[in-house]
Specification:
The protein has 494 residues and is mainly β. Helix content is 5%, strand content 37%. The chain has three helices and 34 strands. A hairpin with a 2-residue loop joins strand 18 and strand 19. The two termini are 44 Å apart. It is found in: Membrane. One of its GO terms (cellular component) is membrane. It is a single-pass membrane protein.
């Protein structure tokens, strides 16, 4: 490395992040595919030039073509440097480099010629210090090379494995960065097998000592075993953010079995993309989600308890990620309407029928229609509905007189199947959902003259790689009977 004006110190570090969850000030959790092999402290061969001569990433120099756009967080050094080491290792891995180094806490150096074999005992040095310039100990993870010294780690790829993202083994401290609403989770996590302690023949099956037991009331060892808070409290519990650096998540879940009111959600881009519920028993079972559609994205876990009735609680423990990034086929979201009116910002509308869409909640049920909408999430397209926000009166309609079209933004078909929910009118000549490929209608479907939506699936393998759009069609009908279309949750299997 050409030290230049940075002749004071060199920090050389490979990720000591291997499968360790690291929480930054913002609560983001970073994970790595790399495991460090500590090589030690070394001086350069000629006293002036180190084996690591290529700058590949910097948070210091805004004029550099390798500038990351991020700043060094001096106030949170430990979290920052681990995050930066992760980013440095990713850059080195892209280039196939074997060794990485961080200089002045915010410069990432490496070299195509540097190998672990170059760092032999004949070049060993004692001029390495750790945090706050203390002498670098034999087990210390973070060390700084003084002058032309290097503290060196090798880049080792780690095979995929299940690794813990969240457990609750620190008791109440485990939830210090989780956000709560309501009171359902106020006295969580729960210590020990509390259901068994009250002679409930449904052991919790938790891992370790602590778990989330929505009906339980034993937040630490000193509380009497077996006590409950019951099903009355309601609320939510939302985790800090973490990165989906793998293709599967798994966790333990139990408690209530009505997914509408008791569930665990995976939140990506601000919306629930996966959900699961229990089996109306206290015993937790393993549940697994494929998350390849969201690999590399930030996510959160949210526990939802929205009822005070029977089995109105959720149990949860031990969230883990399978660190393999190989893509696993799954239904990936294309269009939903979970941002309310903002969901339609890029859609092209004609006429007036879709002007007050999407619809919030099960509006048909709110007016005692007897045909639940069967929508996913909170929002959906209800052609005759008139509840465009939460504050609008539930159950109101605009009727079947308005007509028009709604055309989606263009997307590329990346899978073999496309599915969605459809309901409303049943005359395909007037009410339908269309798939346009290169501006030509290639698929269409209609409802069954019921407000309740059902799944419609299309084979789109013949159009894979092509540009497409979805179009909702509500044509004028003189009779105005079932003259509307309902739809929701467009997904592609890829």
């Amino acid at each position: 490395m050409n030290m230049g004006i940075y002749d004071d110190s060199l920090l050389v570090l490979l990720l000591s992040l291997s499968y360790t969850a690291l929480t930054t000030k913002a609560g983001e959790v970073f994970r790595s595919d790399y495991e460090p092999k500590r090589l030690g402290c070394f001086r350069s061969k000629n006293g002036k030039v180190t084996p690591l001569q290529q700058l590949i990433l910097t948070d210091r120099d805004k004029t550099s073509r390798h500038y990351s756009g991020k700043k060094i967080d001096w106030g949170n050094w430990n979290s920052y440097i681990q995050d930066f080491a992760f980013r440095c290792a990713k850059e080195a891995d892209k280039k196939g480099y074997k060794v990485i180094g961080l200089q002045f806490y915010g410069e990432c150096w490496s070299s195509s010629t540097a190998t672990p074999e170059m760092f032999t005992s004949s070049f060993a040095s004692t001029k390495c210090t750790g945090k706050f310039y203390k002498t670098c100990g034999p087990d210390e993870k973070y060390c700084v090379g003084q002058g032309h010294a290097n503290f060196v780690y090798n880049l080792i790829k780690v095979p995929p494995r299940w690794e813990v993202i969240f457990d609750f083994e620190k008791g109440s401290a485990s939830l210090s960065q989780w956000k709560q609403t309501g009171t359902a989770f106020k006295n969580q996590p729960t210590y020990g097998d509390n259901p068994t302690a009250r002679n409930r023949p449904e052991p919790s099956n938790h891992q370790g000592d602590f778990w989330i037991g929505g009906a339980e009331n034993r937040p630490n060892k000193t509380y009497k075993a077996g006590q409950v808070q019951g099903d009355g409290p309601k609320g939510t519990l939302t985790s800090p953010s973490f990165y989906l650096n793998g293709n599967k998540l798994r966790f333990l879940i139990g408690g209530g079995c009505d997914i509408k009111i008791e569930r665990v959600e995976l939140i990506v881009d601000g919306r629930a993309v996966k959900s699961a519920t229990g089996k109306c028993k206290e015993s937790m079972d393993v549940h697994e989600w494929t998350v390849s559609c969201f690999t590399g994205k930030e996510a959160r876990i949210r526990l939802v308890d929205s009822s005070s009735g029977n089995w109105a609680h959720i149990n949860f423990d031990q969230l883990e990620i399978w660190t393999d990034k190989k893509h696993l086929s799954d239904w990936c979201p294309l269009f939903d309407f979970e941002k309310g009116r903002a969901s339609m910002a890029d859609w092209t509308l004609t006429g007036t029928v879709f002007n007050n869409q999407p619809t919030y909640g099960d509006n048909p049920t709110a007016r005692n229609r007897g045909e639940p909408s069967n929508h996913k999430g909170d929002w959906w397209i209800g052609g005759s509905e008139n509840r465009p926000n939460k504050t609008s009166k539930a159950g109101e309609i605009q009727g079947d007189e308005p007509f028009g079209n709604a055309t989606s933004p263009t997307f590329v078909i990346k899978g073999n199947k496309l599915r969605f929910l459809i309901g409303g009118g049943c005359d395909i000549n007037f009410e339908r959902v269309e798939l346009l490929v290169d501006a030509v209608v290639v698929k269409k479907a209609t409802g069954k003259c019921t407000e309740s939506m059902a799944v419609q699936e299309w084979d789109v393998g013949a159009y894979k790689g092509k540009k497409a759009q979805v179009r909702l069609v509500d044509k004028y009908m003189e009779s105005n009977i079932w003259s509307h279309i309902n739809c929701d949750q467009f997904e592609v299997y890829q």
